Amino acid sequence: MYDVIVVGARVSGSPLAMLLARKGYRVLAVDRAHFPSDTPSTHYIHQAGLSLLRTWGLLDRVVATGCPPVRHLNFTYTDIDIRGMADPSTDGIDAVYCPRRTVLDKILVDAAGEAGVEVIEGFTVTGLLRDGDRVAGIRGRVGEGPEQEFRARFTVGADGSGSTVAKEVGAQIYEGSPAACFVYYSYYEGLDWGMNHRTGFGEQQFAAWPTNDDQYLVAVMRKRDRFREFRADPDAGVQEIVDRIDPELGARLRDTGTRVEPFRPMLYPDNYRRQSFGPGWALVGDAGYHKDPFTGWGITDSFKYAQLLADLADESLSGGRSFEETLPEYQRERDAQSASTYELTLSISELTLTPYYDSVFRATSLSPDYSKKFFGLIAGLYPPEKYFGEQELAELYELVDFPAAARHVSKAEASL
């Protein structure tokens, strides 16, 4: 009998399992994969996520893999150009990192094992065990082996957007919107571009950042109705998008860039929040909450809400408060803490800006001080209510002598 079973051992499941095992609980984590193992990802870890890795004692392991630090960010949206970095004095982290998932996930799985988690790789969950209406564990098998059953006081689905746990418990979506775009990405040698997140006219975007083994992840994004056309020749499609957005980088891609792995196409899931708790169970990571990869917040949010769930589950497992109290609080807090990121991501991932965001970001680009606040917002270190505060925006527009007709200090006012 386990205290906790975690289904899925990547960026949500392994941290959750590790944190609960460090608190002394008996934890089982299972995953269909064998690690190291790859999975579609932006790779990007914001400073807020890196802060958690540091707290957990794992940041040095990521740095030691040779993943290059990124200390200058280039963000453009059509003709709006914002460059810089979040103020490192906020939390002492002066770089971001974008490790390969073969590297990062292995570090997390190993850390869970070191904490005392029993990890079973290559395990496919075929169903949940129940005690009345309460989830009481899992059944499944390794490969073609015999079906096994494991029981626990608490079972967590950390098994991604296609979560088996979510399907088994009938977790319903209560907030959502369709995915707007598709992504194609691969890895290149011969590039030295720094970090770029560039959206151009014509609803197209490319992103690039360094990762392990002296390689660059290069990703492009377009609206879904262009997917069939793009997939016919993705090499030409990537080159065309980079050429149109930044001809200089396009020339460098053509002259020195060499793609070294197959393309990964991503027709990623819709944006959603699912009911993420019930009797004896909870969901964490993409199993319970997913948004467009445009802002690269998937890994960082996985870390944040694994920590949140671990803290609240500990209260119930230790007898402090019942799960009937702590699990609703987990979902409320997750939704409240992620609300601004969720809304911003959905708004700007359409590859066109609303008048409100156009005016805010355009004015930001004219102010070095507000640009730092922008990158602090993106990093998860600067409060959204201050960056988008009406008084703060009014002061920004005055400071940069912004045209009065283009000033928008609230979303509601901009929509009139």
UniProtKB/TrEMBL annotation:
MF (Gene Ontology): FAD binding
Pfam families: FAD_binding_3
Chain ranges of the FAD-binding domain: 2-338
Organism domain of life: Bacteria
Higher taxonomy: Bacteria, Bacillati, Actinomycetota, Actinomycetes, Mycobacteriales
InterPro entries the UniProt entry points to: FAD-bd, FAD/NAD-bd_sf, Geranylgeranyl_reductase
Protein's name in the database: NAD(P)/FAD-dependent oxidoreductase
Organism name: Nocardia yunnanensis
